[in-house]
Amino acid sequence: MRILITNDDGINAPGLKTLHAIATEIAGDEGEVWTVAPAFEQSGVAHCISYTHPTMLAELSERRYAAEGSPADCVLAGLFDVMSDAKPDLVLSGVNRGNNAGENVVYSGTIGGAMEAALQGVPSIAMSQFMGPNTAELDDPFEAAAAYGAQTVRTLLDKGIWVQSGYRVFYNVNFPPVAATNVKGTRVSIQGLRENTGFSVEPQLSPSGRRFMWVRGGDQQIDTGEGTDVGDNLAGYVSVTPLRADLTAHDLIDDLKERLA
């Protein structure tokens, strides 16, 4: 199996090393793992692509490249340049430092990389490690992802639903913020929403008097309930959520047609 890996934390991020180990186990002795990751951190860029300016791509070592662009740029570079002779069988994006559950899904560059692969017709999985008080005490905060990553990917490849037409399904996996020995299992979860919290801005004045702002995140430990990604993660479970790039609110279509008739 030929696997392309990327992330949004950057080419030197520790989570990418964890992902490379997972991908190497999945690929097997006869497989290949290729890395195309951002040269610098790209957290929060979602599905951004560098449409209006070129992206520099540098080969760092065999099958390892850094791109001055977003995770979606990296996937495009991997599919149409680095691996143009034969597209990968699978794209893995992550392992992100921090959860990409709940409302974080729509901001995540990790999700954006997996989404681009799905739009290009390549099976893809986004993987993130939820962080919290318990992971802060671990020598390796990615311990849960390292222990359960390959198993989760294998299960999805074997038993997952891989829609082959229209907006293709890709998977969002979040590992819980606990030690590997405390992971309780895996749950299929819907995307949660942390109510009354989210991103905001904090303005500051520089010494020269110029006004800047810092974007601040909300409380990540708010439980969104059983059956949701955040809730299941906080309860100690690996969450698996099927996603599509289609943002249509399908449940409102018929009602809206009647209202606007």
Task: Give an overview of the whole structure.
Helix 1 packs parallel to helix 5 and helix 2 runs parallel beside helix 3. The longest helix has 17 residues, at 143-159. The chain has a 9-stranded mixed beta sheet, sandwiched between helices. Strands 9-10 form a two-stranded antiparallel ribbon. The chain contains 7 helices and 11 strands. The protein has a single domain (2-192, 223-260), classed as Stationary-phase Survival Protein Sure Homolog, Chain: A (3-Layer(aba) Sandwich). It is α/β, with parallel strands linked by helices. The radius of gyration is 19 Å and the shape is globular. Nucleotidase that shows phosphatase activity on nucleoside 5'-monophosphates. Its EC number is 3.1.3.5. Pfam families: SurE (PF01975).
